[in-house]
Design brief:
Blueprint: E1 3-5, H1 8-17, E2 23-31, E3 39-46, E4 51-54, H2 63-69, E5 75-78, H3 82-92, E6 99-101, H4 102-108, H5 117-125, H6 145-156, H7 158-172, H8 179-185, H9 210-230, H10 234-237, H11 240-248, H12 265-283, H13 301-321, H14 325-328, H15 331-339, H16 349-363, E7 366-371, E8 374-379
Parallel strand pairs: 1-4, 2-5, 5-6
Antiparallel strand pairs: 2-3, 3-4, 7-8
Helix pairs in contact: 4-7, 5-7, 9-11, 9-12, 13-15, 13-16
């Protein structure tokens, strides 16, 4: 039976009852359709012997909970933790740590990459989760019992999944593989807005030349700052297609803005001077300050052979660790690494398995050898 905690006093009492736990399963329900920042609507918590829904919309002071979540002796277990941790960072300016992400753990164990919570629960526990409340408006009050039951299932089974994954990771010696990924999840920089780089996520930006990308960068940064200030979705400020059109076209005076489909008269009246000034500033930048898209160099025949070799090495590592090759690295990822002149695939657990091996193969310090019917990785013979 789960508890519904909707007052400061209840929260204080509940935190006292679970203070000695070694780990806690956590999830959140939030709304973001009409805001830039997520609106926290519910926090679900499970320990080995308690279940609770904490209502942040009726509790006046969540600081005791935020402080409790900072205790380093308690592991905080999430599934696909990124959005949950972003909320805590935004509200408390602190991130719960240490964390354990069951989605990443499932990938490391070869269960599936980017596996959803429902599929993981079904695979490990043979339980099919109810999906009937997935479109709930979590800001509405009061919440009905079936909504609370739906929400608590997100941690009810997470507390059963975690010990299974944890035991398998220890048995297979893969616990250390997760260290970098989990540390990145608790790095505040992961969740800090970056207006000056927001242009990189705009659809169809590849249609623009570098000089026009400089304009897009300035306009996108303005949009991001406006969205943050007003706490409204980016698209409510300006759509991606509008930003691309404004960057592509020659705009020298206010009347030129009327050519842009999607701009309202009110927007032009309020922001035209700001936009035109940003455009002029971008146009005045020297070429060396123009943003650049990553160059996509087509693999020549020799580099394609190198990619073939590295994919054999990926398959060899995957077989050695009983993981599907597709979960370690795709051909496209390897080709991208090579065309960008890198020797490191990634900084996560995949990189732990592949980065040093790739670097040694590319530098000639090791090679792949066929022994019998097996492919093995060996140090290259010393040159005399």
């Amino acid at each position: 039976m789960s508890q519904y905690i909707d007052t400061d006093a209840k929260l204080t009492r509940y935190l006292q009852t679970i203070d000695q736990t070694e780990w806690v399963a956590l999830d959140t329900e939030f709304m973001r359709e009409k805001t830039y920042f997520p609106r926290l609507c519910l926090i679900q918590i499970a320990t080995t012997d308690t279940l609770a829904c904490i209502d942040p919309l009726t509790i006046h002071d969540l600081q005791p909970l935020f402080a409790w979540l900072q205790q380093p002796r308690i592991t905080k277990v999430f599934h696909a933790a990124g959005q949950d941790l972003e909320i805590f960072h935004y509200l408390a300016r602190q991130i719960p740590a240490p964390v354990f992400d069951t989605q990443i753990a499932a990938a490391v164990l070869g269960l599936g990459d980017q596996m959803g919570y429902a599929r993981l629960v079904e695979q490990l526990l043979k339980v099919q989760l109810d999906k009937s409340q997935s479109r709930t408006d979590w800001q509405q009050r009061p919440l009905r019992q079936r909504q609370l039951d739906y929400a608590i299932d997100d941690v009810r089974y997470l507390r059963q999944v975690y010990p299974l994954l944890h035991a398998e990771l220890k048995q297979s010696g893969r616990m250390d593989w997760l260290e970098k990924s989990f540390r990145k999840l608790t790095d505040p920089a992961t969740y800090e807005p970056a207006p000056r780089s927001s242009w990189e996520r705009i659809r169809n930006l590849q249609l623009l030349k570098p000089a026009r990308l400089a304009i897009l960068r300035e306009l996108a940064a303005w949009r991001e700052e406006q969205a943050m200030h007003k706490d409204r979705p980016r698209r409510w400020i300006l759509g991606d297609e509008v930003l691309v059109d404004m960057s592509r076209m020659t705009l020298e005076q206010v009347d030129d803005l009327h050519q842009i489909r999607g701009l309202t008269e009110d927007q032009i009246k309020r922001h035209a001077r700001t936009w035109l000034e940003l455009i002029r500033q971008a146009e005045a930048l020297p070429q060396e300050q123009w943003p650049q898209l990553p160059r996509k160099r087509k693999l020549d025949s020799q580099l394609s052979l190198v990619a073939d070799l590295l994919m054999v090495a990926v398959s060899q590592q995957a077989e050695q660790h009983n993981i599907s090759p597709q979960m370690l690295a795709s051909r496209a990822q390897v080709e991208k690494m090579l065309t960008e002149g890198r020797q490191k695939l990634s900084d996560d657990w995949r990189g732990n398995l592949l980065n040093d091996m790739f670097a040694d193969l590319l530098a000639g310090r090791s090679h792949l050898q066929i022994r019998g019917q097996q492919v093995v990785l060996e140090p290259a013979p010393e040159q005399h």
